[in-house]
Amino acid sequence: MRLSRYFLPTLKETPSDAQIVSHKLMLRAGLIKQEAAGIYAWLPLGLKVLKKIEQIVREEMNRAGAVEILMPTLQLADLWRESGRYDDYGQEMLRITDRHKRDLLYGPTAEEVVTDIFRAFVRSYRDLPMNLYNIQWKFRDEVRPRFGVMRGREFLMKDAYSFDIDEASARKAYNRMFVAYLNLFERMGLKAVPMRADTGPIGGDLSHEFIILADTGESQVFCHKDLVEMGAPGPDVDWDNLEGHVEKRTALYAATEEMHDQARFERETSTDQRLSARGIEVGHIFYFGEKYSRPMKAMITGPDGVERPAQMGSYGVGVSRLLGAIIEASHDDKGIIWPESVAPFDLALINLRPGDEACDAACEKAYAALQAAGRDVLYDETDDRPGAKFARTELVGIPWSMVVGPKGLAEGNVELRNRRTGETSTAAFDSVLDGLIKG
Amino acid sequence: MRLSRYFLPTLKETPSDAQIVSHKLMLRAGLIKQEAAGIYAWLPLGLKVLKKIEQIVREEMNRAGAVEILMPTLQLADLWRESGRYDDYGQEMLRITDRHKRDLLYGPTAEEVVTDIFRAFVRSYRDLPMNLYNIQWKFRDEVRPRFGVMRGREFLMKDAYSFDIDEASARKAYNRMFVAYLNLFERMGLKAVPMRADTGPIGGDLSHEFIILADTGESQVFCHKDLVEMGAPGPDVDWDNLEGHVEKRTALYAATEEMHDQARFERETSTDQRLSARGIEVGHIFYFGEKYSRPMKAMITGPDGVERPAQMGSYGVGVSRLLGAIIEASHDDKGIIWPESVAPFDLALINLRPGDEACDAACEKAYAALQAAGRDVLYDETDDRPGAKFARTELVGIPWSMVVGPKGLAEGNVELRNRRTGETSTAAFDSVLDGLIKG
Q: Which of A230, A362, A420, B200 has its CA 20 to 30 A from that of B267?
């Protein structure tokens, strides 16, 4: 993409209403624009990152055997009356009346809708296990939206729902999501720690939150230090036998504030193993059994011919919130440092003197070769000063820059910059280009 | 995808509430499930087609120089008060009040929001031309939703918005979208005819609808027959000089019912050139100049230093509606016939006797080889009868089937079926597989 034809409105000043670093940087780097309290438009660069995160989530859900559907944003209130949650949910639910005076709502979650889909088509244990997920906009009418996309009102969520014939099978489904979550967060460069959590309005008795540690986290969390550095199991696991991977983690103490038991924490960890920190929730999984299937009559006939309510769980990832969480975990005083897996562009190509014949020719050659190799390049061919170009590239956090200037080029050289380390090196045009083409 | 692990709930009976063939087939083939009047959940197969259509639209927008953003589904009523449309829009606008009694609405279109984004960041002619588009869910509270996704309430729309410094440049932007639309509909196997159209609540004085001819179309259209078979210009055009491609088409008579002038029609066409048919609108483009930029003060400074309102146009494609339109244009009495570019799977692999060692081995080999070659395969390894398998594959419209049965395999042969032509041929396993791998 040629920058002069792109829409990348970076800001020089930090907007005064942003309190945390991710919100400030998302506004300054031109990722989002607020349209109402807690409601954002996604500008081109922000949307690219959002789509990359979404795609990682999708791939890991598919790998774990979940099947993608798409549920509507608006739902019938009557479904929530069936489950009994309509009156319970409170003011965070955005209630809507259509022209025929029918009660709708903007879905804050979709247990009722997915149960309605399931009961319409599935009757037999032979069709199970089943896990249906979707990545769709949700709305929660927060009383005080803040922190940008971290606590917005309209937000993008991946929500998966598992259906099983019995509890043993449902726990396998829970474990598949548990491991899929470890894997997908790791692919985004995040260290997410699973912690026993309160089930809140979703219900059930088994639940884990996946927490990123960050000073600006919304809540206090407590865990065994080893959990932070324990990598993810990776994709090459036996997806039907994950107990070992799950137990290895759940054996260590980890709890959110609501579930924390200080005496137990001190009993189960030594002083130097004890970590208390602020945390950001990026995922939340629940096993709640028959909470929705029983009142909504999502019944399954087992091999014994007996009908019983499906055993269900639900599994959320805050897709739009993850942009904020990743920035909280990965930035410096110059701006965002995107992990390569979610970076909006693979690299920036910076022409220090557009109009100079040699610079233009070298840049066009590099741009064409990199694009042909499938690399996604932001080519800065604007008339801005070099300092402004470097500052912008650093602010928006593109992992690599290839810098082409007249002096270096006279000797056949260009500069390569790494955003994360700040390292720069000068080398021959062809060798830098080859390296970037190979990724 | 192994069918036994997928969620493909096809129906034997045609639902009684569906009136047109696309709606019937979308329900029967398990593409959608109604959740409320005019509000649908997208089941796995329907979502795959929706994503393919969306991606074609995206690629052709990008090719034409438009830049993707994403605007929220909910919008501030105050923005619509600025443009003067809030009171005009009528009951099709779903009006919402949040917990703080602030007026919101579910966007039926986004001229106001995009103008708000534009005016926040763009001041100079140097940043123009600019075209921002998004693919997002919209809501129009139709008094009588019907025909499935063809006239739903919650629907997926691609809407693009162009900003230019003067009318000449804005007309070039209009022409780029005009040609992009011809190209993108052709990629989906559709013959879309551009027709002079009424501008309705969007406003302006220049507008074309892109119309698919189908017996079940919602309105009567009138056009010169040559327009139907005229083919799209394709991607290799001079995107800054498209007048010829546009004029070649607009020179021929084509009008929707609201704009039709029978006397002129008869004057400009001979009897055998005259076509009057039912049509389905799949795209609509508008040039409306300063209608939004003037009241909302989206001002641009020109090279002369003088400020003026941006010249704007907007360009819609009904992405979810296109599934219905494509099915109306491409089906037979057995079911849907997807054009290959939007088919949910490239091919079906049908195992006629799962459990038979030779059949299973051949199918597994073919499945692995096809997947490795990047082909998206639906592998039917269920215990259903062969007749049920064929009927299902035909109903859901997968372009090709490779059929593996014990009799053929004993002689080293498999069968290849083409959904569109109905042709079947028997040939050696390896040669059929090679042909499918090559596409």
A: B200
